[in-house]
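User: Sequence in, structure out. Go.
Assistant: Echoing your sequence, followed by the structure tokens.
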Amino acid sequence: MDLALQTALDLGMHRRDFAVSHAPNDPVLQECFRRIWWQIYIVDAAYAAIERLPTFMANSVISDVDLPCEEKEYENSTIPKPSLLADFDFREFESEGKVYSSFAYLIGVVRGLSQASVSVPWQSDGSPTLEVVAAIDSVIDGWLLLLPESKQQVMNSGGDIDELLYFANMWVHAALVSCHRAFSDITFNPLEVLSSCAASPQTNALPSEVKQVHTMRCLSSIQQQVSLLTLPKRPFCHSPFIICMVVVGTLPYFAACTCLLRGGELVIAREHIRVIIGCLKALGDVWKKGRNRVQELQAIGKEIIGATGLPNTRMSETVAATGATNKPYQTPTSLPFVGSGVLYSPIYANEFAQLWPLMNQQLDVNTWITDNFPVQ
């Protein structure tokens, strides 16, 4: 990824005039050049999001590259006059309500989140501050409110999914969960750190009424992710980055099942988790190295939900919904946890040998994303 970005910068692909000067009479090739730059930007941002980095190299580059057109236009080689990035940045003042491409709206929300992240201070350990949460909320709310009607649904009347808008919406809700979870009532379970996609825990002393707002926003985004996953697309195949985005939402859902949700809410949450795992397993069948993330999530969920005495059958969940009392929340292992987000005592692989047979195969996210992803 670093090599691709540096090569693009050396060539000058981040400048608006690159496309025209290198393909003066070929609008399709010009569009291809624009897409290459913006795809590099998006992937670089996705790496940074997975690694919990507040910024990334492409975000520090001043770029004025025109925005890509719609996918159908590109596929049919009917390239319109490109939209200016500057015009998109001032779209809230347009009276005619111009509709940009789905790729442009994906670029817009990623740029907005990236620029907001470097404009406000973070905790020294990389956890979000309340200023960060407010900034992220503003970016996302503004982006959603300015989406034209034709871009508000990721599936059209013919059942086709707009993969770029799908990716953008998944990114939005993963960002909301990451920020709001730290200030919510959803207790952080020590086993969550075993996931490559886990967020850093944070101790906060907010008033309960304030924490409730963060809790509801976090749970709402998790449920929105479930809604996106259940769209009727077969075969189930999306970007590999979707896997980590969904894991970001599923880990706090595990914890919420043990410390927060009761009765009917717990029943629905458990069904949601079954849907999530099923969808992620389908993605793992497409993106081979994504299977590790899915098995990792299954192992963590089995330990968190199973070891806390939660009902594990639909019949038991129905009983719980009608008034039975669940066992109180208990940390499922004896692993002490300190405020820095590091396990105080080591976890030995043989302790999880039966639960987690792939303990010594947990690759760095950069490694498995940058490798080839053979479709089976």
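User: And one key feature?
Assistant: The mean pLDDT is 81.
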